[in-house]
């Protein structure tokens, strides 16, 4: 008698958001359970991790994008070639939330009428004293776009597994 193979599926996710919102920090925490204090701006990086979800092995490929306008051209293939998106903004930066609708519109523009899975993530929830974005503002935006919303912390891992 042979052993039963666990079904495996591959999912390609892309981290989107302006610079310094914590995309790389969230990605590195999810992949390696480490928090990096010294931030180096990302050009683009790809990571792979296997996770088990309800007896299914899911191979998660995460592309961590730059987030800076200087690298805007490299983002086009990422919008087209991924199964889903994690759109990140910083709870300590109102401007990062203002950029979210533009990112969501870009996903729709590049993907056509496809309903791409998107999760809106407010990062840095641990920085309570520096919070600049009220929860209600992010919730309203998520409801308008009909996407789930989570608040996370790359530093403390709060809601990290749920966001991926």
Automatic annotation (TrEMBL):
It holds the Pfam family Ras. One of its GO terms (molecular function) is GTP binding. The keyword Nucleotide-binding applies. The keyword Cell membrane does not apply. InterPro entries: P-loop_NTPase (IPR027417), Small_GTP-bd (IPR005225), Small_GTPase (IPR001806), Small_GTPase_Ras-type (IPR020849). One of its GO terms (biological process) is signal transduction. One of its GO terms (cellular component) is membrane. Keywords: GTP-binding, Nucleotide-binding. SMART domains: RAB, RAS, RHO. This is Small monomeric GTPase. It comes from Opisthorchis felineus. The lineage of its organism: Eukaryota, Metazoa, Spiralia, Lophotrochozoa, Platyhelminthes.
């Amino acid at each position: 008698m042979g052993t039963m193979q666990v079904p495996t599926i591959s999912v390609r996710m892309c981290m989107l958001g302006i610079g310094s919102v914590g995309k790389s920090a969230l990605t590195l925490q999810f992949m390696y359970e480490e928090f990096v204090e010294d931030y180096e701006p990302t050009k683009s990086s790809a990571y792979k991790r296997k996770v088990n979800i309800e007896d299914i092995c899911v191979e998660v490929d995460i592309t961590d994008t730059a987030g800076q306008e200087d690298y805007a051209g490299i983002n086009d293939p990422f919008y087209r070639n991924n199964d889903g998106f994690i759109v990140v903004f910083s709870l300590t930066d109102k401007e990062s939330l203002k950029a979210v609708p533009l990112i969501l519109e870009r996903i729709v523009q590049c993907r056509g009428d496809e309903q791409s899975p998107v999760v809106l993530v407010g990062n840095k929830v641990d920085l309570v004293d520096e919070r600049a974005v009220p929860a209600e503002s992010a919730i309203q935006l998520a409801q308008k776009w009909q996407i789930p919303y989570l608040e996370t912390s790359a530093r403390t891992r709060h809601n990290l597994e749920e966001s991926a």
